[in-house]
Amino acid sequence: MWSNRKLLAKLSICAWKVINTYLKSTVPGTDAVPGASIAVQTYGDFLNFNPHLHATTTDGCFLDDGSFKTAPGFILEDLEEIFQYEVLKMLKKEGKINDAIIP
Questions:
Q1: Sequence-separated (6 or more) residues with CB below 8 Å from residue 21
Q2: Does residue 58 sit within a domain?
Q3: Can you tell me the distance from the alpha carbon of 101 to that of 103, in angstroms, rounded to the nearest whole number?
Q4: What is the pairing mode between strands 49-57 and 60-62?
């Protein structure tokens, strides 16, 4: 399934949605803009097919006045749960899984 390059790109979009939403929800103000760089990697330690993401993110958001507001620390369990939801939603939309697969 992941050999489809379009799905790999959509995987990084799922990650961005989670990071963007999470950071904006922790920094007050409607003008808050987080930053991130997300790269898809498709191989593992032994050059086997192992699709995964590498991400560098800001730890807060930039505001319209040029300031930067730091967010409280990331709660990794929350991010993991939201990311899983986004990926499953994307795979269902792409017709790769159905409701029987989703817990």
A1: 82
A2: yes
A3: 6
A4: unpaired
Residue 17 sits in which domain range?
A: 5-93
pLDDT tens, residue by residue, 9-59:
999 999 999 999 999 998 877 789 999 999 998 887 788 888 889 999 999
Please name the residues in contact with 26: beta carbons below 8 A apart, sequence gap of 6 or more: 60, 71, 72
Is residue 98 in a domain?
Answer: no
Please determine, for residue 97, whether its predicted confidence score (pLDDT) is greater than 70.
yes
Residues 6+ apart with CB under 8 A from 89: none
Residue type, 76: L
Number of domains in the chain: 1
**C-alpha triplet 75, 22, 18: angle, nearest 5°:** 100
Instruction: Supply the pTM of this predicted model.
Output: 0.85
Q: How far is the C-alpha of 41 from the C-alpha of 62, rounded, in Å?
A: 28
